[in-house]
Every structure is written in C-alpha cells, then in structure tokens.
C-alpha cells in the first residue's frame, strides 16, 4: 500500500473519529438539557399540587423560572444549545443509523427523523426565549394546543386528523410507559460501567420516571381525541392543564404529586442517560 493511500485512510479515520466525538458530545449535552427541563417542570407541578405557584407547569414555565435564577441568561443559552445538540444527534441517527442491531432499519430512522423535528422546534423555542428574554416562554402549552387544534379542526377532515393525532399520542404514551416498566433502556446503557447501587438508582428513576412521562402523554392524547369527537378545541390540553387534571381526580392533589415526582425522577434519569448511554 503506497503512502498516499495510507494518508487518505488516516484522514478518513480521523474525520470519522472527530465526527463521532462531536455527535457524542451533542447527544450527552442534549440529554442533560432534557433532564433540566423535566426537573423544572416536575418541580413546578409539585408547587401547583400544593398551591405554591401561579407559574405554568410546562416548558414555558420552566424557562421563566430558570430566567429568574442567577446567571439565568447564561443558563437559558446553555439549555438551548444543549437541545440543539440533541437535534443534531437525532439527525445523525436518521442519516447514519443508531446503536443496536436494527439501528439502521427504516423504522428507527423514521423515529429519529420525528425526534429530530421535535427537538428542532424545542431548541428554537428555548433559544428564541433566551434571545428575547420575555416572560411568556413562547406562550403556554395549553394555549398553543388549543390554537393548533382549532386550526386543524377547520381543515377538511380536520376532526379525523385531530382524532388520529390524539390516538397516536395515546399510543406513544403507552409505548413510553411500557418500555420503561420493561426496562428496555438497558439495551442502550453501558451497564458494565455501573456499580450495583448505581444500577438500582437508574432503574428506580427510569421505571418510575418513564411511567409518569408515558401517563402524561397518554392523558394529553385522550383530551385531543375528546376535542376531535366534540369538535371543541378548548377540550385539547397542553402539559400544564394535563398535569392539573390529575389534581381533579378523587385522589385529589396526591395523584398530581406522584406524577410530578415521576417527572422529577425522569429528569434525574436523563442525567444518567447523559453519562452512561451508548451513542
């Protein structure tokens, strides 16, 4: 093998390593940023349960809360950049595949594409909030859900579209919750690098946090289906109203406390994923 071929091969390997390092850093930053948001949303939901806050228990409320902390502007920019890193990682999975045996399958790539689009939207909203420093967080999730539902209902076959979206959200919530309970996340973690106590902690946060997250998704989807059936956009609920609904059950605020605690645990689990996930 001549020198030029060796040089080209070396450059190719160097670029691949560099690209992999960038993608891994983006993924871990994104998972950590996701953890921060869930911690804040869960904490706000706990305050709502005990009547200690008027903030929205959603992403907008979390951003408003974060902006009031020391170095709030720096934290907001860091959060937005981390979420942009998450979008970059999901894009790389859509283009090149993810870890695992079927990481390059069409299903996994499609799922990565959907996640990429979602995190582009979330990162954009956080960075826009950081740039403007307004206190609305881009509007409450409840108002956004009602406005979006109203627009879709006005389209031809709008009721079917909203109903299908609601069913998809319910299915996604069930999928998230079941996978968490079955501990499917084990396939993506470097378990060999964890001690027994760490693994138990990860399982507690992963199972309880994932189940709570899935439940919230599923309930929000049910409200979307009801909005479609009744042709009433106001029946659609964002994250804040969905969480507050748990306090209106016969169990009172304690069900909301349990769900909010689960979201906090999912935030902790996201930090564990940032540390031990295989990328």
Automatic annotation (TrEMBL):
Transmembrane segments: 31-50, 70-89, 110-131, 160-182, 202-229, 254-274
Domain of life: Bacteria
Entry keyword set: Membrane, Transmembrane, Transmembrane helix
One Pfam family named in its UniProt record: DUF1206
Occurrences of domain DUF1206 (ranges): 29-96, 114-183, 208-277
Transmembrane recorded as keyword: yes
UniProt protein name: DUF1206 domain-containing protein
